[in-house]
Amino acid sequence: MHGNIGMVTHFEKEQTRHNWFQINGLNLEMGKESDEVFSFAVRPNGNQAFVFVPKDGRIEILRTPDFAEVDSIVFKECTSQSILFLTHAGLLLLENKVLYLLNRK
User: What span, in angstroms and rounded, lies between the C-alpha atoms of 49 and 3?
Assistant: First the structure.
């Protein structure tokens, strides 16, 4: 979980499901179903946020509250197991003990 955004894993009819969620006040608002996510980074932007999710060969950029994909960053070294960090310097990706700075502010 990052801030008020996260992913919940639950069982439904003997199947494992993964859903994005957002906490709004005291309410847990479930978002769209997704594949299992091992790492993600969040950049708040006013009333919404952008969620960066590593996939094989790219990074998906989702927006809240509907978690729709709005863009992607192609990066061949990225895998679904990569770890993302959002820092003042920009978006960092850790893959196979190598740290990449993907963008600058």
Answer: 10
Paired with 41 in beta bridges are 52
For the stretch 28-77, pLDDT in tens is 888 888 888 889 999 988 788 999 999 999 999 999 989 999 999 999 99
Which residues are 2's β-sheet partners? 5
Our count of domains for the chain comes to 1
Range of 71's domain? 5-101
